[in-house]
Amino acid sequence: MTTNPPLRDGHGTLDQRNDDDDSRMKPQPLASSPTGIADAPKHNESPAPRASVEYDTPESYRKLDEVAVAGPVQNPEEGPIYRHESLEDARSRDQEYTREEAEAAARRAPKGQGSHPDAKQEREKPARGLEVSRLATQIYTVSYLILFSFFGTLARLGLQWLTDYAGAPVFPSVWFNFGGCVVMGFLSEDRKLFRHGWGTPTHEQQTKKAKQDEEAGGSGSDRAAVDLTAAKKAHLATKKTIPLYIGLATGFCGSFTSFSSFIRDAYLAASNDLTYGSTTTAPRNGGYSFMALLAVIIITVTASLSGLFTGAHLAIALEPVTPSLPYLTTRKLADRLAVFLACGCWVGAILLAAIPPADYWRGAATFALVFAPVGCLARFYASMWLNGLNPAFPLGTFAINVFGTAVLGMGWDLQHVPIGGVIGCQVLQGVEDGFCGCLTTVSTWVSELAALRRRHAWIYGGASVVASFAVMVAIMGGLRWSDGFEALKCVH
């Protein structure tokens, strides 16, 4: 008799349980499909009202920290006892599971089973329904990333203009970093928008059944709690393989927030050049500049972290009234429509930058939209290639934040020297707002800080800020303390 594989948690990793637990306390493990999507237990399986569509998600998608970490609130029911799982645990168990799967496949190969699915896979195949090819899944994911990079860039620029007014109490970059982290926290904790993960609201049905068993009391309440936890983990594992979710978390939130803008404001505060709200700076000594530097760092980091947990709390509070995305609309219409919209919007942005109805549009938005998808896609692939190398230090996010900060510093210097014209200044502004703004991210960064173990979080967060600020001082400081910054030739 074939045994079911171990239960997988929301990170796509193994959920180990003690062998001596009471069998009544153990829910039936959810079989994990080769795509990383958990299937419902076979003994409770009922014919689905419609064929489900599953994505053949590449294994490299697991290295995205936006989809690897669980929600910021790991105990939404506020139970007296719960298990906290860090990002390091998720990465280590995922690597162990992948290694065990490879070893098992190697052992089966000499027996002639390497090229043929086993009996269990054959039995599961009809239940899984239709499967989107891996190429189509990647095309849908890239299309969503391109499309939502436009929305994130426009949201960031719009909020920046809206919050830059006379007498503003705080610099504008705080607002879009806080707002993007709120959306990120909501998406990470939400269990309603994508509840049709298997084609039927499996999570909602299991949640209602578990709550009914819990209200009945007795020994069944313990099992209900375990079943409810398993249902939530299976839902998370399914949700984080959906291209639309990756587009929202990686594309929109990552483009809405900007780590390079945060470090730029930190340097400008230290050099007494941070102006906002149509104010001018007054001369001050180095001690006050150091306090201004600390203020920018403290306000941005604390506001972003609080925004992450605010979004998670909103998702928990609004769960009873949060609507669910229609299954057929999302899987069969939105995915295909996103491909045409992404290509069309990008071509449209290029045309508007080349032949603008008004020259002001170039520096304000169109050049930023031209470069936004490039930065978003670069961040996406860098995270896939580098984030899994060290579970305790997300190297991909660190590298893109430092590199994007360096590019923004170089663009800022070229804008503030007496060379070039208006068009060159607008192109550089588009690189800063579009490419650098979408390449660097605060939402993913604070999600990693919240998920890492405390010591690793302090090391990773401190290294990111110190390294990026040092690069910015080396690039912008040379011009600032030699020739000084010239006035911009373009308005932004």
From TrEMBL:
Span list, region Disordered: 1-129, 198-221
Location of this chain's protein in the cell: Cell membrane
Compositionally biased region (Basic and acidic residues): 8-17, 80-106, 117-128, 205-214
Keyword Membrane attributed: yes
Cellular component terms per the entry's GO annotation: plasma membrane
Pfam family, one: CRCB
InterPro entries the record matches: FluC
Catalysed reactions, semicolon-separated: fluoride(in) = fluoride(out)
Gene Ontology molecular function: fluoride transmembrane transporter activity
Keyword Membrane attached: yes
Topology class, membrane: Multi-pass membrane protein
UniProt keyword terms in alphabetical order: Cell membrane, Membrane, Transmembrane, Transmembrane helix
Record field: transmembrane: 139-159, 165-187, 242-263, 290-316, 337-355, 361-381, 393-412, 457-479
Top-level lineage group: Eukaryota
Family: Belongs to the fluoride channel Fluc/FEX (TC 1.A.43) family.
Purpose: Fluoride channel required for the rapid expulsion of cytoplasmic fluoride.
Name of this protein: Fluoride export protein 1
Organism: Cytospora mali (Apple Valsa canker fungus)
